Amino acid sequence: MSRPDLNLLVTLDVLLAEGSVARAARRLRLSPSAMSRALARLRAATGDPLLVRAGRGLVPTPRAIALRERVGPIVQDAEAVLRPAEALDLAQLVRTFSLRTSEGFVETFGAQLIARVGAEAPGVRLRFVQKTDKDSASLRDGTVDLETGVLGGATGPEVRAQALFRDRFIGAVRKGHALSRGRITPARYAAGLHIGVSRRGLDRGPVDEALQPLGLERRIVAIVGGFSAALALARASGLIASVPERHTAGLRAGMHSFALPIAAPEVTVSLLWHPRLDADPAHRWLRMCVREACAG
């Protein structure tokens, strides 16, 4: 079965509104003969004469009267689909955005981001989802609107990314720890008891690779899945946590932090989203809010 010509909907809408082939032709800037041919096609498509002669004019059939109530809204909806999106009214926006981030990101940037969003769009709610891996499935299936993190092999090739900030690893110990006094050399740093951070439970990472050329190796006595857990352990013990500086600024409050005495590995933290949301005005505004919160 052939598909109907949807352009005929506009013609039908005008014909039924005007009740005249001549007036409909002028409104659509068509010749009377072209309008008559269009009416013939509409009659064939609907199986109904639609407009019939009554004296010197035309009157609609019962089917035409029924269609007149339906075709107008259909044409208006179709035109709205093909128009550019209306300007975003933040004051009236009601929406919940899901952001997949680490606990450190929420701790460091969350309050400023929530304040910025609430001041401009009080009807918007942010839902922070804990990040347990780098898989992009939640962005693809729409359960997450935005994600922050370091790009990796598990990041889908279609995912859009924009750098937020560079971060470097530093050391963190509890107040009064031996490393809170005196000069910290690579050997002194490596000789301490360390906490490893790995979602997959690995016992080596970028810090260990930086120590290896110096012939040094950390003694890792505990491995945790995130930086917040590492800092909680370091705060309550004599262990050393090596964590990204900006990402954990809030989590390290009350602790002693120090620059690593080695070529500290750096990472780029990026904002990630799926391309289907690229042009969504509300999503673009939220991305701007996140960028500005991190810049501040």
Q: In summary, what is this structure?
A:
By secondary structure, this protein is of the alpha/beta class.
Q: Over the alpha carbons, how many angstroms does the gyration radius reach?
A: 32 Å
For the record, give the distance between the C-alpha atoms at the N and C termini, rounded to a whole number: 60 Å
- Classified in CATH, the superfamily of the largest domain is Periplasmic binding protein-like II
Average pLDDT number: 88
* Overall SS class: alpha/beta
CATH topology of the largest domain: D-Maltodextrin-Binding Protein, domain 2
CATH architecture of the largest domain: 3-Layer(aba) Sandwich
Count of runs of 4 or more consecutive helical residues: 10
Report strand %: 15-25%
CATH C-level class of the largest domain is Alpha Beta
What's the shape? rod-shaped
State the domain count. 3
How many strands appear in the DSSP assignment?
Answer: 11
* Unreliable stretches covering 5 or more consecutive residues: none
**Share of helix, binned:** 25-40%
Sheet of most strands: 9 strands, mixed
Order of helices and strands: HHHEEHEHEHEEHEHEHEEEH
